[in-house]
Structure formats: structure tokens, C-alpha cells
């Protein structure tokens, strides 16, 4: 029975009404009920380094982080985050005033948007976008302005940002640019020229930039360049990252924000009333993870690159047109060569038809029709799981 309300007013408020249950819930349920291989949601099916798991156990046993850790995060982790930005990008951040620990990058996104966006402000986001961006912009009362990444065909097909379109999207009401590189779901890694153009635009129009770099260590072709490293950007950029993807512990939810003191302060104001603090013992473990040697990061990249190649070539053999991702956990495909055009219908039918679950990219679009023929598969799974998925997808239909 529906709960009683004093009027016919819907329970879910107007800001969130358009965000029903996520597609991931529907597709994961479908995977369960059909026994299909779930390449929908992006989480690894093996855990990260044993020594980092042990570090978490040690912290828990030693009573470090079992009670409320400090609001900005434990000093060990803030110092490790600052050292990481220095080590990989030559960016200097003060662990005390320019680093904030969050409950995953998800809370970093929420807190940043709630802190910086005034109702009515426009927020430009790259479309297709990570699903929480739209919901958090809405919760902040902002208006999202999508700029669509478009597929460029050919043997090296990729999605690219149209810089003129980005420039044209900026108005007097634009508060910030919400960037994501490496980009989920397309796997696009923004190039130096593209990032320079974004930086030039931000400086020229005096915009804040929020950049989600959770896949910073999962770049297979080219290199990850943080937007904050471009001239004029450090003081206007909030950089978000997380230990989930870099260390294969997506359940730990340890994320962080780096930026100039005024920006980090603003984000902390919102963050303190969302979770206050989180992930106590895991913060110590992620601090140790960030200090792992280069060989760890190289091995992670090599392993995922091989999985990307396995799945991408398998999908191509199965008849999909494949956008080879330069980074992330995901490969986006075009289903039109299979004689299909509706990614939703395709993904709802795929578990029964082939025993595999994928996600329709349309859920990441405002312009649903622009995303209709695209379908995303995750390759952060064990090799034998990917091989079995490819086998199923390439088997002749009965
Ligand atoms: C996975 C993901 C996140 C969420 O990171 P958590 O640390 O798990 O909260 C944020 N942004 C993008 C683009 C992601 O793919």
C-alpha cells in the first residue's frame, strides 16, 4: 500500500523526481535472475593488493580510525595525497589546507557541487556523464548544460569533445565546468590540446572547474594530465579522485579533493554536514596504497590494458562497432552494425539472448537520442570471465 500523505503531492521532491532507480539496479537484478555475466557495473571482481588489505586490518586492530577521524581526513592520508600529486604531476598541495578526504569521489562530487553552485547557476558537464553528476547538480538547484562528446568513426574510432560547442555553451550564468578525464563511459582521455583549450576558456570566462580524475592511473594510450597543472588553473580547479579505482577497493569509499585553500574550505563546509567523516581505518590503508612503488601502478595498467584488448577485440568479432577506450574500466560500442538501434531494448534482451549484461549509454545523456545506439561493457573482470563473455557474445544465435 502507498504510504499516506496529506495531499496528492509526490513523496520524492521535484529536484529528484527525474532520477528513479538507477539502471545498474535493474541490470544487476537481471544478471542475477538470468545467470548472465554482469559487465554492467564498473567494479573489479578481485580485490586490490593483499598488503593494503592487511594495512586496513592492522589499522582496525590498532584502534586507528575506529572513532571519528578528523573532519578533513587523517593527517597520514592527507600527506599521502599531497605526496601523490607531487610525485606524479609535480603539483604541490598543502596537506593541511589544500586536501580534504571524502566518502569516495561520490561524496566529493556532491559536496563540491552543493558548496559551489547557487540555485539557477549553470553547470556544464561533458555528456555522456557519470550519473551522479546530474543528480548532484539538481540537488544543488543548478541547471545542467550538457556538451556532447561525439563519435568519430574509422578504425581508431573515439568520442571527442567539440571545443566550439563547449565555448558556445558558456553563458553569463555559467558557474563551473565539470570535467571528467579519463572519461566514463566513453574511455576518452582528453589530450593536452583539449585540456589547454578548456583551461583557456576557464581563465577567459573566469570559471571554476571541477575535474573528476578517478581513472587517473587507468590510462592505456597517451597520458593523464591533470587540469590543475595548466597555467592559471591551480587556483580555480577542484580536483577529485579516489582510491576505489586505483587500488581495486571500490567498497572502501575513500576519496579526496585537492585545490586552493578557499575552494577546499568551501567544499569542507558542505562535506561536514553530509557524512562529517567516513572510512576511518581504510584511510590509513589508502595512505599506504598511495605510496606503493611505480611497479604497482604499471602492473595495474598493464593488466587492465590486456583486459581492454581482450574484450574490445571480442566485441568487434561479435559484430559491434567498438570505440577503443584510451582509459577507464569501460568499452563503449555501437550496436547499429548488429541491425539494432535502441540500446535500452538491446540491453534488456541481451541477458536472455547471450547471457551477458551491459549498460545502455543513453542513461548518461540528456539528449537520449544521441546516446541511443551506444552500449557500455566493463572489462575490470577476471580474464576467464571476459573470455566466457566473449564466447557467449560470438556464439551463433540459436
Ligand atoms: C566510480 C566513479 C566515481 C565514484 O568513485 P567512488 O570513490 O567509488 O565514490 C566517480 N566518478 C566516476 C567517473 C566514476 O567512474
UniProtKB/TrEMBL annotation:
InterPro entries: Aminotransferase_I/II_large, Kynurenine-oxoglutarate_AT, PyrdxlP-dep_Trfase, PyrdxlP-dep_Trfase_major, PyrdxlP-dep_Trfase_small. It holds the Pfam family Aminotran_1_2. Transmembrane segments: none annotated. Residues 36-393 form the Aminotransferase class I/classII large domain. GO terms for molecular function: transaminase activity. Gene3D superfamilies: Aspartate Aminotransferase, domain 1 (3.90.1150.10), Type I PLP-dependent aspartate aminotransferase-like (Major domain) (3.40.640.10). Keywords: Aminotransferase, Pyridoxal phosphate, Transferase. Its EC number is 2.6.1.-. Its cofactor is pyridoxal 5'-phosphate. This is Pyridoxal phosphate-dependent aminotransferase. It comes from Streptomyces macrolidinus.
Amino acid at each position: 500500500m502507498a504510504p499516506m500523505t496529506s495531499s496528492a503531492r509526490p513523496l520524492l521532491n521535484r529536484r529528484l523526481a527525474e532520477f528513479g532507480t538507477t539502471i545498474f539496479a535493474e541490470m544487476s537484478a537481471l544478471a542475477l535472475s538470468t545467470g548472465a555475466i554482469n559487465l554492467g557495473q564498473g567494479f573489479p571482481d578481485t580485490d586490490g593488493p593483499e598488503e593494503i588489505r592487511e594495512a586496513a586490518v592492522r589499522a582496525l586492530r590498532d584502534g586507528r580510525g575506529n572513532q571519528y577521524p578528523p573532519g578533513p581526513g587523517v593527517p597520514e592520508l592527507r600527506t599521502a595525497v599531497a605526496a601523490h600529486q607531487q610525485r606524479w604531476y609535480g603539483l604541490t598541495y598543502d596537506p593541511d589546507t589544500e586536501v580534504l578526504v571524502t566518502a569516495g569521489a561520490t561524496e566529493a562530487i556532491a559536496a563540491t557541487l552543493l558548496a559551489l553552485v547557487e540555485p539557477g547557476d549553470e553547470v556544464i558537464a561533458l555528456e555522456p556523464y557519470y550519473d551522479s553528476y546530474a543528480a548532484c547538480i539538481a540537488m544543488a538547484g543548478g541547471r545542467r548544460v550538457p556538451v556532447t562528446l561525439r563519435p568519430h568513426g574509422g578504425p581508431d574510432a573515439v568520442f571527442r569533445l567539440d571545443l566550439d560547442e563547449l565555448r558556445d555553451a558558456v553563458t553569463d550564468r555559467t558557474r563551473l565546468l565539470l570535467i571528467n578525464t579519463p572519461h566514463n563511459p566513453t574511455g576518452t582521455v582528453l589530450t593536452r590540446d583539449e585540456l589547454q583549450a578548456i583551461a583557456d576558456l576557464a581563465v577567459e570566462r573566469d570559471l571554476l572547474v571541477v575535474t573528476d580524475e578517478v581513472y587517473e592511473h587507468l590510462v592505456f594510450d597517451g597520458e593523464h594530465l591533470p587540469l590543475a597543472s595548466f597555467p592559471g588553473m591551480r587556483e580555480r580547479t577542484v580536483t577529485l579522485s579516489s582510491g576505489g579505482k586505483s587500488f581495486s577497493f571500490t567498497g572502501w569509499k575513500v576519496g579526496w579533493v585537492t585545490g586552493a585553500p578557499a575552494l577546499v574550505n568551501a567544499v569542507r563546509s558542505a562535506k561536514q554536514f553530509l557524512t562529517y567523516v567516513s572510512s576511518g581505518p581504510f584511510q590509513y590503508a589508502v595512505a599506504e596504497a598511495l605510496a606503493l612503488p611505480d611497479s604497482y601502478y604499471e602492473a595495474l595498467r598493464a593488466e587492465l590494458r590486456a583486459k581492454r584488448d581482450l574484450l574490445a577485440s571480442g566485441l568487434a568479432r561479435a559484430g559491434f562497432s567498438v570505440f577503443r577506450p584510451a582509459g577507464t574500466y569501460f568499452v563503449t560500442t555501437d550496436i547499429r552494425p548488429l541491425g539494432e538501434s535502441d540500446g535500452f531494448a538491446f540491453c534488456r534482451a541481451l541477458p536472455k539472448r547471450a547471457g551477458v549484461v551491459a549498460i545502455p549509454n543513453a542513461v548518461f545523456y540528456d539528449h537520449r537520442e544521441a546516446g541511443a545506439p551506444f552500449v557500455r561493457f566493463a572489462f575490470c573482470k577476471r580474464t576467464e570471465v571476459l573470455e566466457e563473455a566473449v564466447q557467449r557474445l560470438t556464439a551463433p544465435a540459436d
